[in-house]
């Protein structure tokens, strides 16, 4: 739901009656209010945030509590640059400089919430993924 989804709603249905086959409920006013944001979490593909040099990486954000309109911003620790403003961040052709901790900030105009950091490691040709023994 968004704040602009506030409206008056009713339903209409078939009621197998001799008077009228259709009946409509009384209207109900639905008002959407802003809610404090919380429980912002990140997920990553490929799993564990380990991606081969030159491959693609996708970070996704979920907000468990809160309503919008939501605005998003992606950041990497140590970099002041804004990396993206949508719920997903896609990095194509990852490079060594893409390794690091990523965070997501979400705002609904009433509050701001930030995710825990998500560690991303770009593996070079010589680096085995974690948990692999050669």
TrEMBL record:
<dbReference type="InterPro" id="IPR036179">
    <property type="entry name" value="Ig-like_dom_sf"/>
</dbReference>
<protein>
    <submittedName>
        <fullName>FCRL2 protein</fullName>
    </submittedName>
</protein>
<dbReference type="InterPro" id="IPR003599">
    <property type="entry name" value="Ig_sub"/>
</dbReference>
<dbReference type="Pfam" id="PF00047">
    <property type="entry name" value="ig"/>
</dbReference>
<keyword id="KW-0393">Immunoglobulin domain</keyword>
<dbReference type="InterPro" id="IPR013151">
    <property type="entry name" value="Immunoglobulin_dom"/>
</dbReference>
<dbReference type="InterPro" id="IPR013783">
    <property type="entry name" value="Ig-like_fold"/>
</dbReference>
<feature type="region of interest" description="Disordered">
    <location>
        <begin position="85"/>
        <end position="115"/>
    </location>
</feature>
<feature type="domain" description="Ig-like">
    <location>
        <begin position="27"/>
        <end position="121"/>
    </location>
</feature>
<dbReference type="InterPro" id="IPR007110">
    <property type="entry name" value="Ig-like_dom"/>
</dbReference>
